[in-house]
Design goal:
InterPro entries: DUF5763, Gas-vesicle_GvpO, GvpO-like_N. It comes from Natrinema hispanicum. By secondary structure, the protein is an alpha+beta fold. The protein has a 4-stranded antiparallel beta sheet, covered by helices on one side. The N and C termini lie far apart (151 Å). The chain is built from 3 helices and 4 strands. It folds into 2 domains: 2-86, no CATH class; 113-200, Nuclear Transport Factor 2, Chain: A (Roll), CATH 3.10.450.
């Protein structure tokens, strides 16, 4: 009777071992099936596989069998790519917004910045001188202002050449135009003026 009990225990142990081996053999296949079904097999509008978790039918809550799907080979490649990247160490890390690397040509040259600043200051100075002579030349010289023909920087500030109508005539091509030089400082303040010459408006040569 003891022998029969031992045989029964041995038989039960063999059954357990066989069931354990059978479970171990089928477990990887079951896990692989579970992994392949864990992700929705539908395609997005960009042609990529949907990243949402799949339900029992293999689709997420937004897709169904009427949507385009990925093939089994594509699904396998999609699952293998993250693993390959992790093994090779070539995982692309997301960049922070606004931190793109600058190339050598995009770096700022201090000399170029200084040149731009100087150019802007010179333009601002010319505009200030032009506004000053336009508003004051007529009252300063005592004749009707006609135009500005030259503005140039000097060691002490600026030099402007303006034209005024010294005498009106009919036709206006016979108007007598006087050319005057006005001296200004760096702040566009007038310090003096003098007449350079006179000419008829319609003449190509100077009138004396």
């Amino acid at each position: 009777m003891i022998a029969d009990h031992r045989d029964d225990l041995t038989h039960r142990q063999h059954d357990r071992i066989e069931r354990l081996e059978e479970y171990t053999e089928h477990r990887p296949m079951a896990e692989a099936d579970t992994q392949s079904q864990a992700q929705c097999k539908a395609r997005t509008e960009d042609g990529e596989r949907c990243s949402r978790p799949a339900q029992d039918d293999g689709f997420c809550y937004q897709h169904n069998e009427h949507d385009p799907t990925v093939s089994d080979s594509q699904a396998a490649e999609t699952q293998e790519q993250p693993d390959e990247q992790a093994e090779s160490g070539d995982v692309e890390h997301p960049r922070s917004r606004g931190t793109a690397a600058m190339t050598a040509s995009e770096t700022t040259d201090p000399e170029a910045v200084d040149a731009d600043v100087d150019a802007d200051e010179e333009i601002a100075g010319v505009l200030a001188v032009r506004e000053t002579v336009q508003s004051t030349a007529g009252r300063l010289i005592g004749h009707e202002f006609d135009g500005v023909s030259e503005i140039s920087p000097t060691d002490d500030g600026w030099r402007a050449v303006v034209e005024v109508v010294e005498r009106r005539a009919v036709p206006d091509t016979q108007d007598i135009i006087g050319r005057y030089e006005i001296e200004l400082d760096t702040d566009a303040t007038v310090h003096g003026y003098r007449r350079l010459d006179r000419y008829r408006r319609g003449d190509t040569t100077e009138f004396e």
